[in-house]
């Protein structure tokens, strides 16, 4: 008789997990890197491959790392919002061209505008993997000490920039 209740118990537990999952925002997947130092990297500058950008170059600044690619449909949705945000000169924005051909990335920026203070190439995706990128676009707000303070999964919206990103930036720039 008690064995008959085992499937019912399993069903109830699964139902509870499903209900909890449905109440969460899929763009707010917790990152194990929040509050930890950003991974070290060295990457060629997209339009000047002889130059390299490293994490150490960004120390002392609050900055945003935005992963994108010319083949990314959601990046096209986010891009005009980033272009407008970049005009405010609130903080340096580094673009990480993820698993893309340099020429395609350069053409894409020429066509749609370049919001980045510097765009770097992540041709094989290793930097993205180190940052825990699930897919592009994703962005990371990094503080003056090189610690990741916020991760945006998916495209930025104007509301997210105004309501979440800007208050965090102001706090970190104090």
SSE layout:
Elements: H1 5-22, E1 42-45, E2 48-54, H2 55-58, E3 63-68, H3 73-86, E4 93-98, H4 102-112, E5 118-122, H5 126-131, E6 138-142, E7 148-153, H6 158-172
Parallel strand pairs: 3-4, 4-5
Antiparallel strand pairs: 1-2, 3-6, 6-7
Strand % is 15-25%
Give the low-pLDDT segments: none
Q: Can you summarize the main beta sheet?
A: 5 strands, mixed
Instruction: Report the strand count.
Output: 7
Cα separation of the termini:
65 Å
By secondary-structure content and strand pairing, the structural class works out as: alpha/beta
Helix content: 25-40%
- Strand arrangement within the widest β-sheet reads 5-4-3-6-7
| Overall pLDDT level | 91
Radius of gyration, Cα only, in angstroms? 19 Å
In DSSP terms (H or I, runs of 4 or more residues), the helix count works out at 6
Query: How are helices and strands ordered from N to C?
Result: HEEHEHEHEHEEH
* Morphology: elongated
């Amino acid at each position: 008789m008690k064995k008959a209740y085992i499937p019912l118990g399993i069903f109830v537990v699964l139902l509870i997990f499903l209900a909890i999952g449905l109440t969460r925002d899929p763009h707010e997947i917790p990152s194990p890197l929040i509050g930890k130092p950003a991974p070290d990297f060295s990457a060629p500058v997209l339009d000047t491959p002889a130059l390299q950008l490293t994490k150490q170059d960004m120390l002392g600044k609050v900055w945003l790392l935005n992963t994108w690619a010319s083949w990314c449909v959601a990046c096209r949705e986010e891009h005009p919002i980033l272009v407008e945000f970049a005009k405010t000169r609130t903080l340096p924005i580094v673009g990480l061209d993820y698993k893309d051909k340099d020429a395609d990335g350069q053409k894409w920026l020429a066509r749609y505008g370049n919001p980045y203070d510097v765009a770097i190439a992540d041709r094989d995706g290793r930097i993205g993997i180190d940052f825990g990128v699930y897919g592009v676009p994703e962005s990371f707000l990094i503080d003056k000490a090189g610690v990741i303070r916020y991760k945006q999964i998916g495209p930025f919206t104007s509301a997210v920039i105004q309501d979440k990103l800007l208050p965090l930036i102001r706090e970190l720039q104090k």
